[in-house]
Design goal:
Structural class of chain A: mainly alpha
Radius of gyration of chain B: 17 Å
CATH superfamily of chain B: Cytochrome c-like domain
Strand content of chain B: under 5%
Largest sheet of chain A: 3 strands, mixed
Structural class of chain B: mainly alpha
Helix content of chain B: 25-40%
Number of domains of chain B: 1
CATH architecture of chain B: Orthogonal Bundle
Number of helices of chain A: 11
Shape of chain B: globular
Order of helices and strands of chain A: HEEEEHHHHEEHHHHEEEEHHE
Number of strands of chain B: 0
CATH topology of chain B: Cytochrome Bc1 Complex, Chain D, domain 2
Helix content of chain A: 25-40%
Number of strands of chain A: 11
Largest interface: A-B, 30 and 31 residues
Strand content of chain A: 5-15%
Oligomer: heterodimer
Radius of gyration of chain A: 19 Å
Chain lengths: 283, 155
């Protein structure tokens, strides 16, 4: 009940701003979770298209921000707890759980999220965290692959990402990842759909501006998977990309597609140095 | 040639009855402006106002602030406020901007509302699926209605 009240108050506060439209740019709030201060703003690195770089958290209203600052209030943790159970649960023909091979998630998965997506030598492809999870399931557990951007897979990636919370985004873009990076960059600047809008049109050229009722951030992915009020569940970065491209009246790419993995690498690079906030809270 | 027969009845009547909307591919731009009405008729400013505010139609206020439309919630800040555009631009220029703003402002972020080609991966409205047939975002009539409304925005 308390949670609802906070959310509603947030909505009311936002409506109050409609007439004045004073929002422009990020706010000055500091993100602290469990006593740890997160990097939500930093100067652009060499070759960075953004300067400063901001976390999307800085563009949300106070009530939404507050939910992310308290793990007991953060609605994403219901799903994280479910995934913690799945981690220990034997599934598939091999009689194994994730824990059978990896032990405690807190130990074995620490830091993993920071370098995602990453080039997988054996597969000869760039893999998102989801690919690694599904590979373990199908090849090592003899279980079915989980659906991309589905509740179960998003819960598992949230659990894994949580073990890197507070660590800086640090994707590797050279070597065999370089061509994926270039492809992702090309997608980022392509004006898709009947509205002919690129990611950069909204998230680079108009950071901080209102587009109808939405306060535009830099479209960073350091908070993913993220819990959204809009659909009251966890959302993957690819799910968000899909929604943004759909909103340009375009034919989207599929979550898990090579195009979205390439885009994920490029967007991760744009946010390098930001603290991982997963699982974050957004509207 | 039979189509010319009604001429005998009266020129005024004919132009209304025989006029077909200018197809999106046939719109003639001169320096970004379009002289000729797309419907051959004056637009309805009251409906144009609805088109500007409706998310499923023009959704112009997603990007533009319009003081006269203060009753419609949420105006964006992407483009310039539209207050006074009826003074700043001629009707022909406004028709050009709404039909295909890229003819007036090179590389602008403003979408082209009366255009059907040149898109990358056009979708079937907001479904995320591929479009089978691309129809303009606004009909010729809606464009004229919007232009008529914009002409009322004088300082």
């Amino acid at each position: 009940m308390l949670k609802k009240a906070i959310v509603l108050a947030g909505a009311a506060a936002l409506t109050g701003l409609a007439s004045t439209a004073v929002l422009a740019g990020p706010d000055d709030d500091e993100l602290v979770i469990d006593g740890e201060t997160f990097v939500t703003e930093l100067p652009g690195f060499e070759g960075s298209p953004l300067d400063p770089i901001y976390s999307g958290w800085r563009f949300r209203d106070d009530a939404t921000q507050a939910l992310e600052m308290d793990d007991f209030e953060n609605p994403a943790f219901v799903f994280v707890e479910q995934a913690a159970e799945s981690w220990e649960t034997v599934e598939g023909t091999e009689g194994k759980s994730c824990a059978s091979c990896h032990g405690a998630v807190e130990e074995s998965m620490k830091g993993v999220r920071a370098s995602m997506p990453s080039y997988n030598e054996a597969a000869g492809e760039l893999w998102s965290l989801e690919n690694y999870v599904n590979f373990c399931r199908t090849e090592r557990m003899g279980a079915d692959a989980l659906k991309w951007d589905g509740d179960e897979l998003n819960a598992m990636t949230a659990l894994i990402a949580l073990q890197s919370r507070g660590m800086p985004m640090a994707p590797v873009i050279d070597g065999p990842a370089a061509e994926w990076f270039e492809r992702g960059k090309e997608i980022y600047y392509t004006r898709y759909g009947q509205l002919e809008l690129s990611c950069a049109n909204c998230h680079e050229d108009h950071t901080g501006d209102m587009i109808r009722a939405d306060h535009l951030s830099q479209g960073q992915i350091n908070g993913f998977p993220t819990y959204r009020f809009k659909n009251t569940k966890l959302n993957s970065a690819h799910g968000r990309f899909k929604g943004c491209i759909r909103d340009t009246r375009a034919e989207t790419f599929a979550p898990g597609s090579p195009e979205f993995r390439a885009l994920e690498l490029y967007v991760a690079w744009r946010g390098q140095g930001l603290s991982i906030e997963s699982p974050s809270v957004r509207n | 040639m039979k189509r010319l027969a009604p001429l005998a009845i009266g020129a005024a009547l004919v132009s209304a009855a025989a006029w077909a909307d200018t197809a999106p591919g046939d719109v003639a731009f001169t320096d970004g402006a379009v002289e000729q009405s797309l419907t051959g008729k004056p637009g309805d400013a009251a409906n144009g106002r609805v088109v500007l505010g409706d998310r499923g139609q023009g959704n112009c206020v997603a990007c533009h602030q319009v003081s006269e439309m203060a009753d419609v919630p949420w105006h964006g800040e992407i483009g310039p406020p539209l207050d006074g555009v009826g003074d700043r631009w001629s009707e022909a220029e406004l028709r050009g901007i709404v039909s295909n703003a890229k003819m007036m402002f090179d590389g602008t972020m403003m979408p082209s509302f009366y255009k059907v080609d040149g898109f990358i991966r056009p979708g079937d409205a907001y479904t995320g699926n591929a479009a089978e047939v691309v129809t303009p975002i606004l009909s010729a009539e809606q464009v004229e209605d919007v232009v008529a409304y914009l002409m009322t925005l004088k300082e």
